Design the sequence.
């Protein structure tokens, strides 16, 4: 806990091993911005918003060259690898992430059933078009309009709730990304023969959670934030080359989980404030039969 508080924020920002201190300071700084008058906080917010946009644009430019870099890195790894163990390890890693994401969706469906009394088939039929769009775009932000339409029209959540919960969820509710980052960090550590202590594993969980909150709702953002998780755990960032080749399909899968989580939370919030009613457009299901 003491290590969360930086002695010098500039020193912490220049050292990749102290990323958790930077995240803590950023959260604390944001709380301070909220507490001061809007006219004084607004210029600071605009500065950081603009700075964030510049960084995201630079990342977009870098990602244009990423496929060529990944090809070169993997080609070298394949040549140096004496067997197909590398590909087997990647397959197990991808399978582990997919199973974890599938279990997370099951947990969402279970929570919706327990707290809102809506059946799993009702929830899946309602959100499935948004899930398909999320899978194809790998972007929670691009899927947001469809998610809002499905949750309001087909799942009975009032606009008062969706207009507040879903935009926030598309920004900070990145549960699938958090799971992926934790699994990826452990996989890379094992690939380098590192033995992670319990404290380090706990640090990975905390950092992955915070890093996922800070991830942009655009394709590939989770991979960028994974650098923070690796740096905090002392895992070589060069290990990213190991998982880059399979990141795109996993990015599509974890975006589906993120969007599903947004819809599930909006339904539970709506139920808690008595804003969950009958769908405006009723699907064919066990609950809604078409009357002749």
Sequence:
């Amino acid at each position: 806990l003491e290590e969360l508080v930086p002695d010098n924020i500039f020193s912490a920002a220049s050292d990749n091993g102290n990323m958790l201190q930077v995240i803590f300071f950023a959260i604390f700084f944001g709380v301070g911005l909220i507490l001061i008058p809007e006219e004084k906080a607004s210029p600071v917010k605009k500065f950081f918003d603009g700075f964030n946009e510049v960084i995201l644009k630079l990342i977009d430019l870098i990602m244009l060259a990423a496929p060529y870099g990944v090809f070169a890195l993997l080609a070298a790894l394949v040549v140096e690898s004496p067997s197909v163990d590398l590909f087997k390890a990647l397959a197990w890693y991808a399978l582990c992430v997919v199973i974890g994401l599938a279990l997370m969706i099951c947990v969402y469906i279970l929570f919706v059933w327990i707290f809102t009394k809506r059946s799993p088939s009702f929830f899946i039929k309602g959100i499935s078009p948004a899930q398909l769009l999320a899978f194809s775009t790998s972007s929670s932000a691009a899927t947001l309009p469809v998610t809002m339409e499905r949750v309001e029209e087909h799942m009975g959540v009032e606009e008062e709730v969706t207009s507040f919960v879903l935009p926030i969820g598309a920004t900070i509710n990145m549960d699938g990304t958090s799971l992926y980052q934790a699994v990826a960090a452990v996989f890379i550590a094992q690939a380098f023969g590192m033995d992670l202590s319990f404290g380090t594993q706990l640090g990975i969980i905390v950092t992955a959670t915070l890093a996922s909150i800070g991830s942009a709702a655009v394709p590939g953002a989770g991979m960028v934030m994974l650098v923070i998780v690796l740096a905090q755990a002392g895992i070589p960032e060069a290990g990213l080359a190991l998982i880059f080749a399979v990141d795109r399909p996993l990015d599509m899968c974890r975006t589906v989980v993120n969007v599903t989580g947004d819809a599930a939370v909006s339904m539970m919030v709506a139920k808690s404030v008595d804003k969950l009613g009958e769908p405006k457009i009723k699907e064919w299901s066990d609950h809604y039969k078409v009357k002749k």
Remarks:
- Residues 81-272 form a domain with the Proton glutamate symport protein fold (CATH 1.10.3860.10).
- Residues 38 and 108 are 37 Å apart (CA to CA).
- The chain has two domains: 2-35, 81-272.
